[in-house]
Amino acid sequence: MLRRKFTTLALLIMMSFILAFTTFSLAATADINDSVSTDEGKCTQFFMGRDTVDNGAYLYGRTEDYSETWRKITAIHEAETHAPGDIFRSSERTSTFTWPYPEQTLRYIYSKDSIHNESNYPEPYAEIGMNEMGVTVSSSVTLSSSKTQITGSGGPDRMVTNGLAEVDTTTLVLMQAKTAREGVELLAKIVDTKGAEGREGTVISDPNEVWFFQILSGHQYVGVKCPDNMVGLSPNMTGNVGLNNFVDITDTENFVVSPGLISVAKAAGTFVGSPNDPDPANPTLIKIADSYVNGPTNHQTSVRLRCGYGYLYGYTTQAEINANIPGSQYLNIFVEPRKDRKYSLYEAMRLLAARGEGTEWVAGNPNSNGQAIGNDRTQESHVVEVRSWMAPELATIEWLAQGPAEFSVYLPFMGNLLTDVHEKFYFDDHASYRPNEPYNNNTWHVFRQLYTLCKGSATSSTNATVVEGYRAKYGKGVRDFWEKYQKSLIEQQAYVDKTLAKILKNKGRNAVEKAITEISTALQAETYDYAVKLVAELRAFIAAGAVGNFEPSFLYDETAVPHYAGLLFDHAVPSASVEKLNGNKNNLTVTVTEVYADGSTNEVFKTFSINNNAADKYVVGDYSVYVDTKGNTQIRDCRIL
């Protein structure tokens, strides 16, 4: 991710942040065709094919890295009707980019910048979201700078001022795409028509497949259907894709490519084709990174890529990576998975917190300067889980963690079904954390504060041993608690899935939307409360100068787990019993046993005075129960009306 170009006024406003966090270089304000460092944006994108994951789901996601002060909110954007001629205008005020609105837009959930981050922009930048059709967009990672022969002065395909920018990509796709391929084709059409302002990598999925779309230069791009049997990483790098890492422009099932993909590279003299091309005079195979990237870019040039490979395979040295990852001057996005076992959802989540622990490249303090995947400037992390075997309405979950993932927790957002989120996710009336009003902060504020406390007072020059000492003293107890909480959430999601499937079958989509919204907002509130308590206890521990390592007071409390599946009502079972009294009166006790998704139960009962052999309806809690008695104490019929 590279933030959009800034006006002079915006630059002056943000200068203090630039100096403090070195978020991006002044080159971002220069000629849009100037080169951008491949390590500029610091975001890291990953993908795991369904054959590489233990439960058969596609997994993909990203860290969003920019600034320790750049706040995020999550909200619902309702569907809209537009008149013919209505025009979408770029969210970047300095851009003249426009695109026609569809007649009807879709409802979607999105995580976006706070309105207070950039007052110069009318609609904050959205980077992850899902629409009501289950189309999910993760956008974007800033990709490698292009070869100067292509986008430099006099090049055949320079970047386009006022073209498609990352600030608008997620919104444009979510508002209208009904499938992942439709989203890719929309972006392709926009770049064909308007050109592109930046080189961005965007992942788009639907309940059945996942696509990766890379913009290479002003009008050149390639979209690829992600393979089932491979894993992939992009730490701000354009990468080769396709069979043997060649794009076949004739394979329209697996690729969406720009018309000039090969001809532009040939015109620039940078084209790299395949020796096995069936017609070298009219080639159809191209290595896109080798042809377009101002490289080389591979694991020898990126600490984040080494961190990722180290995590995915268990490598601890550069020599191991060199010996096991196929050699190439340029990055190949998709590589073989590890052989000994498949990846889990929890592992994917923790990948986005990886700092190279236990490896030779953790030297110094890469977590602070942005060299590691998990670093100080992460604003949010997300993992999208696509379960293609499930009903389309239930197939996709966006797991979202606020702040750096290291000391955070991922909450499940079934965004195509949610009609609301808890107010603490979109509450946003102040810029900084309020220590004296702990519950008057939004979710992002609280998790950012928690991370700051857990990492101690390390700076970019702090020795790695000292860094790990801080994290052990202040952060390990927090990590341990969230690990227990996270694994419980993942386990509970299986119960939730089964119950939602029954509700969908028996009562329809509206009932599912109501149910998942109710339990999700309750979970969001509960998690927020735990995070506030963690901050309070850790602040007190630090203030007291306590010896030993911090442990939350509720770390070993067996009841301190998420109450999620236990909130989702499954069904109710009525029962009744009669107590025989003297005369013609008896006592009837009616009980309704409520059963929840996780199998837990709750009983509601009430006793009524009835005549012998009575048959009537009785109100017990929220239920109206019909009971027919016979022969003094026999129950002929008992059912909920």
Number of separate strands: 25
CATH superfamily of the largest domain: Penicillin V Acylase, Chain A
Strand order of the largest sheet: 3-6-7-8-9-10-11-14
H/I helix tally: 14
Tally of domains: 3
Q: Say what oligomer this is.
A: single chain
Taking pLDDT < 50 over at least 5 consecutive residues as the criterion, the unreliable ranges are: 4-40
Radius of gyration: 28 Å
- Overall average residue pLDDT: 90
Shape: globular
CATH topology of the largest domain: Penicillin V Acylase, Chain A
Strand share of the residues? 15-25%
CATH class call of the largest domain = Alpha Beta
Q: Quick one: biggest sheet?
A: 8 strands, antiparallel
Lay out the secondary structure:
Elements: H1 8-21, E1 45-48, E2 58-65, E3 72-77, E4 87-89, E5 98-100, E6 108-113, E7 126-131, E8 136-142, H2 148-151, H3 166-174, H4 180-194, E9 200-205, E10 210-215, E11 221-225, E12 231-234, E13 247-248, E14 255-257, H5 261-268, E15 285-286, H6 288-292, H7 303-313, H8 318-324, E16 334-335, H9 345-351, H10 366-369, E17 378-386, E18 396-402, E19 411-413, H11 423-426, H12 443-454, H13 464-507, H14 509-543, E20 569-580, E21 585-596, E22 601-611, E23 615-620, E24 623-630, E25 634-640
Antiparallel strand pairs: 1-2, 1-12, 2-17, 3-6, 4-5, 6-7, 7-8, 8-9, 9-10, 10-11, 11-14, 12-16, 13-15, 17-18, 18-19, 20-21, 21-22, 23-24, 24-25
Helix pairs in contact: 3-4, 12-14, 13-14
